[in-house]
């Protein structure tokens, strides 16, 4: 998300009715929605039917450079330092300048044995409303939730550096209402060291392998992994679209959910002004689910994960493709920032030096 304006106190409007993504598995999926616009943030998730059949594929996630993130994006590696290193050298996530083979690696433990092979459900269920430019693909339980999601959640929580970014927009202090972190680099030929505001970080191996799998099933290519951690129902993302110009027109964004189910709302930009109003689309994203937003969806729709009274931890991974340098500058500014780093220790997030 480009954080032009985000706050933790935004309360998205919601209708009382809601649906789950289970509906999408029917041949002619009917999106559950309502024209009511009454505020109701306390709707409870509907549990989806988990008895459906899956096409299961097993993919090996273990590469030869275990434990060290190497990116295929690092061909250009002139060790030119930016004038203003970002994050600054005293920032906890600061790494030494890149070398031709070592580009800001995020050192995380080797991929644990239970994650060496992950089962994927690669059946895509399209959810389309062409007249309204809604174009989604839903992969129910894209990652097998029995073992893989639990292990993956633990591994990412424990291994990644996390941030709670604070920034200012038009004189207003904004606290990002969730933990974030980002890896990858736009597709320009600019060397890793050639950035003014950020030092792109190589995508950790496990995320890179997941990204490659997502590329395979979507036919799209990506170069960023943005990761959110919603530690409780109080963490959220307010209505926004990821239609940033630095992603090019009609960007495909693949969004993977791990952990606690959370509501995912999509509202058309003109949902209020149309007569009758365009219903807000309401889904519940479960552990292992993947939603791919395509076509004009980002241009015409906004999405959110609203606050909830009761929710446990949830990780969200989005894969995107930035096409210009500004994509890297922006994503690192708003997902790493200049403040402190957090680590997952003994079951909770604590501020950490490294
Ligand atoms: O957590 C989610 O499902 C959505 C995250 C999102 O929209 C974003 O990071 O831009
Ligand atoms: Fe988004």
UniProtKB/TrEMBL annotation:
Source organism phylogeny: Eukaryota, Fungi, Dikarya, Basidiomycota, Agaricomycotina
UniProt-listed PANTHER family: ALPHA-KETOGLUTARATE-DEPENDENT DIOXYGENASE ALKB HOMOLOG 2, DNA OXIDATIVE DEMETHYLASE ALKBH2
Binding-site list for 2-oxoglutarate: 228, 230, 240, 303, 314, 318, 320
GO terms (BP aspect): DNA alkylation repair
GO MF entry, a single one: cytosine C-5 DNA demethylase activity
Pfam family, one: 2OG-FeII_Oxy_2
Protein name: Fe2OG dioxygenase domain-containing protein
Superkingdom, taxonomy of origin: Eukaryota
Region (Disordered): 1-39, 65-85
Gene3D superfamilies, A to Z: Alpha-ketoglutarate-dependent dioxygenase AlkB-like
